Amino acid sequence: MYKALIVDDEPSVIEGLRIMIPWETVGFEICADARNAQDALLKAKEYRPHLVITDIRMPFKSGLELISEIKKWIWLMSL
Predict the structure, then answer these.
(1) Which residues pair with 67 in a beta bridge?
(2) pTM (two decimals)
(3) Residue 73 contacts by C-beta under 8 Å, 6 or more apart in sequence?
(4) How many whole angstroms separate alpha carbon 14 and alpha carbon 49?
(5) Which is nearest to 34 in space by CA: 59, 6, 56, 57?
(6) How far apart are CA 4 and CA 52, in angstroms?
């Protein structure tokens, strides 16, 4: 089963994604969720999800910056 990480600064969006998508039916489990990019980066390193769904506009750091940092971390781990 694949792992998914959901990142959004609004808890209702995270809960909505948990409820609206039949995760197990499509072969995924939600391994974690995060309310900000900093927490998400820590959880991505811990859980190593196959899929990250992130809000783009969040306080302090955008979802695009988060994805860039995750990509750098994955690249460094491959060396």
Answers:
(1) none
(2) 0.91
(3) 41, 44, 45
(4) 16
(5) 6
(6) 6
Which two structure tokens, joined as six digits, stand for 76? 């460094």
Smallest CA-to-CA distance from 34 within 72, 66, 64 is with 66
SS3 letters across 35-50: CCHHHHHHHHHHHCCC
Query: How would you write the pLDDT of the chain (79 residues) with one tens digit per residue?
Result: 999 999 999 999 999 999 999 999 999 999 999 999 999 999 999 999 999 999 999 988 999 999 999 999 888 887 6
Block residue for tokens 């995750």: 70
User: Buried b vs exposed e over 37-51: b needs ≥16 C-beta within 10 Å?
Assistant: beebbebbeeeebee
Query: Given 3-state DSSP classes, what are the helix, strand and coil percentages for the chain, each rounded to the nearest 5?
Result: 45, 20, 35
